């Protein structure tokens, strides 16, 4: 029964990263409609906060100021800072560079978690599987285009985004043992929204009611806010508690695979033979890392 229960958490992790992989297409559609990345993030997290609020314990509070500071750090690392770094990096570097560097988050998380907690250290089998999945991820992201243009500013910002998600994973690992997943998600949404507000001092919020009333806009915002944020952040926090930071974060290798499939179905992007080979490597690598 315990093993069956753990499989459910693996399925939950796979579902979550599948949804997050599809958010690329939704975000791209919203930017094309006229919204800025900061506006999308604020509305996405606001919807997530409203969805999670009824489910989070009302009377529960952080046990001390140190935990409250950790919640704030999670809201920054897994929210405002992560999304800002990723989106600004796209302005300076090719998307392939950004995708590859952001998806190195599992590697940094494994290294940091292994040093902090001996129980989180990867075995040789897990390391080999993760390496195979990482190589497959690179093939999927490149999608047959084997030319990478070095862009120091953009590449460093993308690497910073990966390290930001690593920080989020480590903070959630510590908090997850003592707080419910829904309560953690509520805190992350609150601090994520609070720390994105200074951005609007430089570029004011300009989304109009007419723009938000368009079906393509509100439908994608509902997907990003209710499903990808409100539901998936709480689910991911529960997965992190059960599987650990390293095993859970390894599922991020699936992100480019899902994005590739979603982009092919929704906006007609071409899938190449190297990308299909990369997809097979991701699946084989994850199976090798997690098999008993």
Automatic annotation (TrEMBL):
It is a multi-pass membrane protein. Residues 10-141, 154-287 form the EamA domain. The keyword Cell membrane applies. Its main location: membrane. It comes from the Bacteria. GO terms for cellular component: plasma membrane. The keyword Cell membrane applies. InterPro entries: Diverse_Substrate_Transporter, EamA_dom, EmrE-like. Keywords: Cell membrane, Membrane, Transmembrane, Transmembrane helix. It holds the Pfam family EamA. It is found in: Cell membrane. The chain crosses the membrane at residues 12-35, 41-57, 69-85, 97-116, 128-150, 156-176, 188-205, 217-236, 248-265. This is Membrane protein. It comes from Alistipes dispar.
């Amino acid at each position: 029964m315990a093993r069956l229960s753990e499989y459910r958490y693996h399925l939950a992790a796979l579902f979550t990263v599948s949804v997050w992989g599809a958010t690329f297409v939704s975000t791209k559609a919203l930017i094309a409609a006229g919204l800025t990345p900061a506006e999308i993030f604020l509305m996405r997290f606001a919807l997530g906060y409203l969805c999670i609020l009824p489910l989070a314990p009302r009377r529960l509070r952080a046990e001390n100021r140190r935990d409250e500071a950790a919640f704030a750090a999670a809201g920054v690392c897994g929210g405002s800072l992560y999304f800002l770094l990723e989106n600004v990096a796209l302005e300076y570097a090719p998307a392939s560079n950004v995708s590859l560097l952001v998806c190195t988050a599992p590697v940094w998380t494994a290294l940091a978690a292994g040093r902090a907690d001996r129980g989180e250290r990867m075995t040789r089998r897990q390391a080999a599987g993760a390496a195979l999945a990482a190589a497959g991820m690179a093939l999927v992201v490149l999608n047959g285009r084997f030319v990478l243009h070095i862009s120091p500013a953009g590449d460093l910002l993308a690497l910073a985004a990966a390290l930001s998600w690593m920080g989020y994973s480590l903070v959630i690992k510590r908090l997850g043992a003592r707080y419910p997943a829904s309560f953690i998600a509520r805190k992350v949404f609150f601090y994520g929204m609070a720390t994105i507000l200074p951005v609007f001092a430089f570029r004011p919020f300009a989304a109009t009611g007419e723009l938000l009333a368009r079906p393509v806009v509100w439908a994608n915002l509902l997907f990003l806010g209710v499903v990808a944020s409100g539901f998936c952040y709480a689910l991911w926090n529960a997965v992190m508690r059960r599987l650990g930071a390293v095993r859970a974060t390894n599922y991020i290798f699936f992100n480019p695979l899902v994005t590739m499939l979603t982009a092919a179905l929704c906006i007609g992007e071409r899938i190449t033979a190297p990308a299909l080979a990369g997809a097979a490597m991701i699946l084989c690598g994850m199976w090798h890392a997690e098999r008993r």
